[in-house]
Amino acid sequence: MNAVQLLVEGLARSTLIRLADDPNASELTPEILVTNVVRRYELRLLRFLNELLTDELTEIAQSRGIELQPHFHLRQTIWLWAHRCEGGKQTCPPDVVSGKLVVFKEGPGTMPESVGWPRSVASTTAPRCRLPQTVDELLSNATALIGAAFPPQGTNKGAFGIAVATALGLREDNASEPDWMGEIEVKTIPVRKKNGLWTVKEDPAITMDSGSPYHKLQRVLWIARTTEEPATVLSWFLQSLEPEVKQLAERYLHLRPKGGAGTNRFGWYMHKRFFTECGFLYSLNGNPKDR
């Protein structure tokens, strides 16, 4: 039994027209409209539920006898019902972030051990590291930095990255070459908790439009830091531009103005969704079954 088929039946025609994503949808018969929506989402239950509005989710729950929940848990409740309808084994549902279902995918990369999930904010004094000569020394420095808090860095968004690079024993100078030995780029990523899970606050800048973002992303040490003051290093994630990561980068890299109003400078930014799918947020939150 396909759960999307069960969930689509009975939805208002206006909802089906919107979900069909077809310029001629308003001209289709109800039967064809339902068939087209089911065909579009039959293997995409999570996406289907995420695209429904709160009133539409409530309509589905009431028509199927599903217990109503606060709106930010309603998608999760319907997902569990649908999963059981499809004969799925008992499992943990997807996480909920900002009212939407998300799956923090495990991706290729290296991360430090964690005593629990999601990671908790540690407290330590920022070390005074010397320039690391090997990757292992770089990662050792990064591990020693977990829990280190940094004072407010003012309005300059790049100031925190410079402070972290200095603490790692590096020199952050915005050069075209990656920060460590021209081989590994170090990027700080602001993260915050929503519904108890770590999420990326904003799309981070990768490089100016004159540079190659893929050159910077060949090997990256992502440093997660909290957005609450004082900003504290939460963890790190070392990742190479393997084929699946490059495919995600190609999907989520985008150009946009870099600077204040009226700027004519542009830079390459990475959409936040990249970090849900590349393994970075998995390295901070783990699996639901492990919590």
Characterization of this structure:
- The chain is α+β, with helices and mostly antiparallel strands.
- It has two domains: 100 residues, no CATH class; 156 residues, DNA mismatch repair MutH/Restriction endonuclease, type II (ECO RV Endonuclease, Chain A), CATH 3.40.600.
- The strands form three sheets. Strands 3-8-7-4-5 form a five-stranded mixed sheet. Strands 6-10-9 form a three-stranded antiparallel sheet. A two-stranded antiparallel ribbon has the order 1-2.
- Strand 7 and strand 8 form a beta hairpin.
- The protein is elongated and about 70 Å long.
- The two termini are 31 Å apart.
Radius of gyration equals: 22 Å
Reported for the largest beta sheet, the result is:
5 strands, mixed
Helix fraction by DSSP (H/I, runs of at least 4):
25-40%
Mind telling me which CATH architecture of the largest domain this is?
3-Layer(aba) Sandwich
Count of alpha/pi helices: 12
Please identify the structural class as seen in this structure: alpha+beta
Number of strands: 10
The ordered string of helix (H) and strand (E) elements is HHHHHHEEHEHEEEHEEHEEHH
User: Termini, distance in Å?
Assistant: 31 Å
Beta-strand level of the residues, as a percent range?
A: 15-25%
CATH evolutionary superfamily of the largest domain: DNA mismatch repair MutH/Restriction endonuclease, type II
Major sheet strand order: 3-8-7-4-5
Shape assignment: elongated
User: How many domains would you count in the coordinates?
Assistant: 2
